[in-house]
């Protein structure tokens, strides 16, 4: 549940990279000790339930990672984008820093 007066925020992002599926799988494994992450091999989708009000879904595309991030409010959404970017860049160290494009809804 979001804080009183807070408006839920959704952002759609894209990270251009050469090995999107590999980076999502590594992130699923990395965060699995903190949350119930999952990865669907067939759809190439990783799910990251950060909390009851925050989650991210990452989909491997031929040219990068499509990201949908939902948080309880905008400030937190902007913060979590940075967390996601830093973590993906760690796994994509050979081609990092990646270029991220974000659009808010």
Automatic annotation (TrEMBL):
InterPro entries: UCP028291
Gene3D superfamilies: Alpha-D-phosphohexomutase, C-terminal domain
Listed name of the protein: DUF2218 domain-containing protein
